[in-house]
Amino acid sequence: xxxxxxxxxxxxxxxxxxxxxxxxxxxYCPRCGYTKVRVSENRYRCPKCRKPFSLTSSTWLSGMKIPxxxxxxxxxxxxxxxxxxxxxxxxxxxYPTVFSWxxxxxxxxxxxxxxxxxxxxxxxxxxxxxxKRKGKRGRGxxxxxxLFGILDSIKGNAYTEVVSDLNEETLVDIIDKKVPxxxxxxxxxxxxxxxxDCYGYNHIIVDHDFEFKRTNQMEAxxxxxxxxxxxxxxxxxLDNLSEYxxxxxxxxxxxxxxxxxxxxxxxxxxxxxxxxx
Length: 277
Hints:
Strand order of the largest sheet: 6-5-4-7-8
Low-confidence stretches: none
Strand content: 5-15%
Order of helices and strands: HEEEHHHEEEHEEHHH
CATH architecture of the largest domain: 2-Layer Sandwich
CATH topology of the largest domain: Nucleotidyltransferase, domain 5
CATH superfamily of the largest domain: Ribonuclease H-like superfamily/Ribonuclease H
Structural class: alpha/beta
Number of helices: 8
Distance between the termini: 49 Å
Mean pLDDT: 86
Largest sheet: 5 strands, mixed
Radius of gyration: 22 Å
CATH class of the largest domain: Alpha Beta
Helix content: 25-40%
């Protein structure tokens, strides 16, 4: 007999915490800010603008059709990195529903998780995702997509982005947006990194024919990302690599201090505009 998960919080408790998260101490209309709203059958209605709304109307949870305790359990399973097949049995919910919610969680990973330090030194590198094939490996491999990464060696956070090519213009454009000018950047000898000194960075090149020590952090990051990816999904369509890349990078950044379901919602939820508080 399979074991089912049971939420430790009641639906009433989850809704109360979510209500406090979105609205604060008092529910108000997200359109006009009117505070004297009416409650009927778990829905709210604003007497001023005569529009109904719910707790999730102004968030990415809008249109939610599963109970709050199921949502809490699904999010908890996703945060713990459980595979879809296991969650179907544990939460007693259909595979398409689990798949849909896992994808929604990926789309709404908090952007604050990828913040890099404003100073220090950074490592840059790229890796490939896709099916393994015989023949050529590494850069230029057919049928695989490159994922470019920047690792903050001070905070231990990483930022990754799927790129169409590994040309100098493409990679430098991303580095320029994420790494402060004047910082120290460590990379391998790939030709696209050769001119980083010309862009205002202190560039250190590590020749992998003789040394790996100074780039070990970056290699460990790629190992962590790919291990978590294989653990949960095995593979993905390369067109969706960007969203999967965000998820596994988020897991890497949160590896030392994992988020709880409510903490994740607090960081990722689209709150009602603060001007209406």
